[in-house]
Every structure is written in C-alpha cells, then in structure tokens.
C-alpha cells in the first residue's frame, strides 16, 4: 500500500490551532510542484460545485471535504493526487472519472497524474452527486425529551 506524502515537521501537519482551511493552504504551498497546483485546482472545483462545503483536516494531514458527511478526501502521493469519494461506489460516473479503488463496495477514487487534465464538468457533477447522496442518507436529529 502506498503511503501519503507527509512531512512530520511541516507546517501542514502541525495544527497549532489553525483552521482546516489554513492547513489545506499550507499543504498546497508545501508541495510546491504540480501536486500542489492540482490539489488547489481540485479544491477550487469542489467549492464551485458546493459553496456550502466544509473543509476538514483529518488523519494527521488529509484534506477532507464534507457536506452532511464526507464527500471526498484529497491525498497526495509521489506520482498521483488521489481524490477518494467516501461513497463513490453509489455514485453514477458516466464520464468514467473513477480509475482507482474500483474493487471496494463503498469508496471509489480518481488518481490524477502529472500532466493529466481534469474533466471539470464531470468532477463537479460527482461532487454534487456526493452531496445529494449524503443529504438523502442523513439521519434525522434525535428529538430531545423535555
């Protein structure tokens, strides 16, 4: 199994009370190569697709985008930027963006390599579908007894 690229002493892995958005800013800056550019572009597309998305920083350095649950994560490796959809197996993917983690029953991922272009319209559609799926499976809040 490949290990995500993280640096223990980097500013992007130490939270020091920073917001998740600032942590993601730090990761993008820290990468300073095509992976940082790609992660930044993916982040912009996610925010365009869902302006209400919530950014989180989990598992010691993984950018996570949520709306009524996890939509996707953005991991960086030496050769790929991996966008993993938490419920990707339940999403329609007519453009065939999913190209990784295809054997599982729940997750699906998109591995993006240096020089590859993103089908931005299809990616935004997947983000919107992930948000819709999360909203449809959201458990109602428990009623408080008085």
Silhouette: globular
Q: Which runs of at least 5 residues are low in confidence (pLDDT < 50)? A: 5-13
Widest sheet: strand ordering: 1-2-3-4-5
SSE sequence, one letter per element: HHEEEEEH
Over all CA atoms, what is the radius of gyration?
A: 16 Å
Individual helix count: 3
Structural class: alpha+beta
Question: End-to-end distance, in Å?
Answer: 51 Å
Question: Tally of extended strands?
Answer: 5
Protein model, in words:
There is one protein chain. The chain has 146 residues and is of the alpha+beta class. Helix content is 31%, strand content 20%. It contains three helices and five strands; from the N terminus they run ααβββββα. It has helices at residues 20-31, 34-49, 120-136; strands at 54-58, 62-66, 70-76, 80-85, 108-113. The protein has a five-stranded antiparallel beta sheet. Helix 1 (20-31) runs antiparallel to helix 2 and helix 2 crosses helix 3. The longest helix is centred in the C-terminal third of the chain and has 17 residues, at 120-136. The protein is globular and about 55 Å long. 29% of the residues are buried. Residues 5-13 have low confidence and may be disordered.
Summarize it.
This protein has three helices and five strands; from the N terminus they run H-H-E-E-E-E-E-H.
Name a few traits of the molecule.
20% strand; 3 helices; globular; 146 residues; alpha+beta
SSE layout and pairings?
Layout: H1 20-31, H2 34-49, E1 54-58, E2 62-66, E3 70-76, E4 80-85, E5 108-113, H3 120-136
Antiparallel strand pairs: 1-2, 2-3, 3-4, 4-5
Helix pairs in contact: 1-2, 2-3
């Amino acid at each position: 199994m490949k290990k995500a690229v993280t640096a223990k002493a980097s500013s992007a892995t130490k939270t020091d009370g920073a917001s998740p958005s600032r942590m993601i800013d730090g990761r993008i800056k820290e990468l300073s190569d095509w992976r940082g550019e790609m992660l930044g572009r993916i982040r912009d597309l996610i925010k365009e697709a869902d302006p209400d998305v919530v950014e989180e920083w989990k598992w010691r350095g993984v950018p996570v985008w949520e709306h009524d649950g996890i939509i996707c994560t953005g991991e960086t490796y030496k050769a790929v930027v991996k966008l993993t959809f938490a419920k990707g197996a339940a999403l329609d993917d007519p453009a065939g963006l999913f190209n990784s983690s295809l054997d599982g029953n729940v997750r699906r991922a998109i591995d993006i390599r240096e020089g590859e272009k993103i089908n931005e319209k299809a990616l935004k559609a997947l983000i919107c579908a992930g948000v819709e799926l999360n909203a449809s499976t959201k458990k109602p809040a428990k009623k408080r007894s008085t």
